[in-house]
């Protein structure tokens, strides 16, 4: 089939041609937008899920909905090696510009507060050349959001931006991807600011996305975070949604899948959106004509698996040291042993394993493995959703390790 017309898009954060299975989240967000527009109280939002389930795609779709509602929006991606001041300043700068506030003096004042907040990252005695310039032409406002305490400063900053939005009867939404990578002080500041904003009734929300342990990160920072955010777990697609993700783009190009092919695709992908796009792209290129058949999927599967092994799984595996790789393989072995229990879940449905079972697989004491485990947690290759248990952040990673052990 014509590769130029191939509709599938297996890219990081790249929106698929059909955003299947996320209607509930999109509808719920539209309700949030409408409620805030009517001065009704609403909580900020946190999306959680494994890598490859489409959190970034959904985050971008929610931002598009906010833009269509004429909100001011800004987006940033948290990184372990970067503090919050600079990226959130840039995001808020964009949001303020999108609001289109008619009072230039009011806008300049808030921009000056953003600039002061951003420049406080540098020490007070830093030379001008060492101060970050956020691209704001107005002078920094002294005495507002520049105390040096990120929690105090972020509360003041978001209060001013929220007030600007209230003036024009609109809202502001700040989207934070990879939110689990915020530092402890920054997480505390975001929670405190969201708490203050919700109490004051200002039309500003934060929409965060991160790995499954993000709620635990937020809860460890502020006990009230469990009530502060509206949590939504983004998971793999059910069979109907997965079929739609394949069929509708194909129909748009005058092609279709046989039912046996769809069954094989769901078995291979497990319903994970990234895998659906990866297998769909290869299946399209491999099939000689429409309809795409079971035989076409069987021919395409090895190539799709090889591409995933190199780009999706392999790139992450390469980030681990030899000792860390040994720990990862032991996690896969522990899951396989657990799957042998007739009363337990299937191998691909095991969400986590105990740290004790990993130590048993390696014939080591759990304490001796803490360095490797902590390093993998910091690298985002595994996560701990509950004490004493760990899981891969990437779906089917255990399958990859067992196949390439």
Tell me what portion of residues adopts beta-strand conformation.
5-15%
What is the number of beta strands? Answer: 8
From the N-terminal CA to the C-terminal CA, the straight-line distance is 35 Å
Q: Can you tell me the residue ranges where pLDDT is under 50 for at least 5 consecutive residues?
A: none
Can you walk me through this structure?
- It is a single chain.
- This protein has helices spanning 23-37, 55-68, 85-99, 104-119, 150-167, 184-200, 214-221, 225-228, 239-252, 259-269, 273-286, 294-317, 322-339, 355-362, 370-378, 397-403; strands at residues 44-48, 72-77, 172-177, 204-210, 229-233, 353-354, 382-386, 389-392.
- It has 405 residues and is of the alpha/beta class.
- It has three domains: 23-233, Rossmann fold, CATH 3.40.50; 249-317, no CATH class; 322-403, Arc Repressor Mutant, subunit A, CATH 1.10.10.10.
- A five-stranded parallel beta sheet has the order 2-3-4-1-5, with helices on both faces.
- Helix 6 links the parallel strand 3 and strand 4 (204-210).
- Helix 10 packs parallel to helix 12 (294-317).
- The protein is globular, with a radius of gyration of 24 Å.
- The model has no long low-confidence stretch (mean pLDDT 92).
Short note summarizing the structure:
The protein has 405 residues and is α/β, with parallel strands linked by helices. Helix content is 52%, strand content 10%.
Compile the SSE list and pairings.
Elements: H1 23-37, E1 44-48, H2 55-68, E2 72-77, H3 85-99, H4 104-119, H5 150-167, E3 172-177, H6 184-200, E4 204-210, H7 214-221, H8 225-228, E5 229-233, H9 239-252, H10 259-269, H11 273-286, H12 294-317, H13 322-339, E6 353-354, H14 355-362, H15 370-378, E7 382-386, E8 389-392, H16 397-403
Parallel strand pairs: 1-4, 1-5, 2-3, 3-4
Antiparallel strand pairs: 6-8, 7-8
Helix pairs in contact: 1-2, 3-4, 3-5, 4-5, 5-6, 10-11, 10-12, 11-12, 13-14, 13-16
């Amino acid at each position: 089939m014509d590769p130029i017309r191939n509709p599938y898009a297996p890219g990081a954060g790249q929106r698929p041609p059909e955003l299947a299975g996320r209607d509930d989240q999109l509808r719920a967000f539209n309700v949030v937008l409408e409620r805030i527009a009517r001065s009704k109280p609403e909580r900020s939002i946190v999306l959680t899920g494994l890598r490859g389930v489409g959190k970034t795609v959904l985050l971008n779709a929610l931002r598009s909905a906010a833009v269509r509602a004429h909100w001011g929006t800004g987006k940033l991606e948290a990184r372990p090696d970067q503090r919050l001041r600079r990226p959130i300043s840039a995001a808020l700068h964009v949001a303020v510009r999108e609001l289109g506030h008619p009072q230039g003096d009011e806008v300049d004042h808030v921009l000056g507060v953003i600039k002061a907040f951003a420049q406080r990252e540098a020490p007070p005695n830093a030379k001008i050349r060492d101060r970050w310039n956020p691209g704001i032409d107005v002078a920094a406002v002294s005495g507002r959001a520049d105390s040096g305490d990120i929690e105090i400063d972020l509360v003041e900053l978001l209060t001013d931006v929220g007030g600007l939005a209230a003036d024009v009867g609109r809202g502001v939404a700040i989207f934070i991807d990879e939110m689990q990578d915020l530092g402890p002080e920054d997480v505390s500041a975001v929670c405190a600011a969201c708490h203050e904003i919700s109490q004051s009734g200002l039309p500003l929300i934060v929409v965060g996305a991160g790995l499954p342990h993000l709620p635990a990160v937020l809860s460890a920072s502020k006990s009230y975070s469990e009530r502060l955010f509206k949590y939504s777990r983004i998971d793999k697609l059910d069979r109907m949604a997965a079929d739609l993700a394949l069929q509708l783009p194909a129909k748009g190009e005058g092609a279709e899948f046989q039912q046996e092919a769809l069954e094989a695709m769901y078995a291979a992908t497990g319903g994970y959106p990234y895998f659906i796009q990866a297998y769909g792209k290869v299946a399209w290129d491999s099939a000689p004509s429409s309809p795409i058949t079971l035989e076409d999927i069987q021919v395409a599967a090895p190539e799709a698996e090889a591409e995933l092994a190199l780009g999706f799984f392999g790139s992450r595996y390469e980030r681990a040291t030899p000792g860390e790789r040994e720990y990862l393989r032991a996690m896969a072995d522990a899951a396989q042993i657990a799957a042998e229990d007739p009363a337990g879940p299937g191998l691909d449905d095991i969400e986590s394993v105990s740290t004790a079972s990993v130590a048993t697989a390696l014939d080591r004491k759990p304490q001796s493995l803490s360095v490797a485990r902590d390093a993998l947690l910091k690298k985002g290759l595994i996560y701990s959703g509950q004490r004493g248990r760990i899981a891969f952040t990437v779906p089917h990673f255990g399958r990859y390790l067992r196949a390439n052990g």
